[in-house]
Design goal:
There is one protein chain. With about 280 residues, the chain is mostly loops. Strands 1-2-3-4 form a 4-stranded parallel β-sheet, with no helix packed on it. It has a two-stranded antiparallel sheet with strand order 5-6. It is built from 2 helices and 6 strands, in the order ααββββββ. The N and C termini lie far apart (about 70 Å). The chain is about 5% helix and about 5% strand. The protein is elongated.
Length: about 280
């Protein structure tokens, strides 16, 4: 149960709470199971706080500090965390459905089976965080920092990762069907066995990326840079490859299927290529 003294101080407002925190830096705030829904607490200092199974739905925490807090099974659905510090936070089965984390700091945080469908993460810093079996369908992560971030078997279908930095990230086995990675940086990214059906990788930087056994059927790789990438045993059936750079790319046992070598949007008579014709 939540600490009644901590709840009483919080009820006095952000200024009173932050003053108390500054005077009691060694006390760990305890809001376990508390109902803090629809609160307006911008700039609140919640460092190292315990929010196990707390209700924070639709609350405003813009530029708040949640560093090293515990948010296990917490409900943050529709919460506004724009610009908040959520570094080194544990999000175990946390509900972040449609939450706004634009420009938030989530470095070194851990997400396990969290619900992040349609979560707003534009320009957020997720560097070196871990996502395990997280539902991120239709999440908005354009221009986000995802350097060395790990996504194990997470669902990123229809996610917006345009211009995101995924360099050295691991997306092994991730489902990224129909995701938008237009102009994303994927230098050295591990996409082993990833599902990329219909994914937009146009103008993406995939230098030295690992795409072995990846499913790229119907994907757009137009003007993508695949220099020294590993596409061995990948599926490129009906992939759009106009302008792609395959210099020193590993294409061992690639399933070429039907290739689209020009952009059908710009050329009504787009050329297709059947790899069986080579045999």
């Amino acid at each position: 149960m939540a600490n009644t003294e901590h709840l009483s101080i919080l009820d006095q407002g952000v200024e009173a709470w932050n003053t108390w925190r500054a005077e009691n830096p060694d006390v760990r705030p305890d809001f376990q199971g508390a109902d803090l829904a629809k609160r307006n607490l911008p700039g609140i200092d919640f460092r190292h706080a315990n929010f196990y199974e707390a209700n924070l739905r639709e609350s405003v925490f813009t530029h708040a500090n949640f560093e090293s807090s515990t948010l296990y099974r917490c409900d943050l659905c529709m919460a506004d965390l724009t610009g908040a510090n959520l570094s080194m936070v544990d999000f175990y089965k946390t509900n972040l459905y449609t939450a706004n984390l634009t420009d938030a700091n989530l470095r070194y945080s851990h997400f396990y089976k969290a619900d992040m469908q349609e979560t707003l993460l534009a320009s957020a810093d997720l560097g070196e965080s871990n996502f395990y079996e997280v539902d991120m369908r239709e999440a908005i992560m354009h221009s986000a920092n995802l350097v060395r971030t790990t996504f194990y078997y997470s669902n990123l279908c229809n996610a917006d990762l345009a211009r995101a930095n995924l360099s050295s990230a691991s997306l092994m086995g991730a489902n990224m069907s129909k995701a938008n990675l237009h102009r994303a940086s994927c230098v050295g990214t591990n996409l082993f066995r990833a599902t990329l059906q219909g994914t937009d990788l146009s103008e993406a930087d995939l230098r030295e990326a690992v795409l072995r056994l990846a499913d790229l059927s119907h994907a757009s790789l137009e003007n993508a840079n695949l220099f020294r990438a590993n596409l061995s045993e990948a599926c490129l059936d009906f992939a759009q490859l106009a302008g792609a750079n395959f210099k020193k790319t590993n294409l061992w046992h690639v399933n070429l299927g039907q290739l689209i070598l020009t952009n059908p949007a710009h050329d009504r008579d787009a050329i297709t290529f059947d790899s069986s014709d080579l045999n």
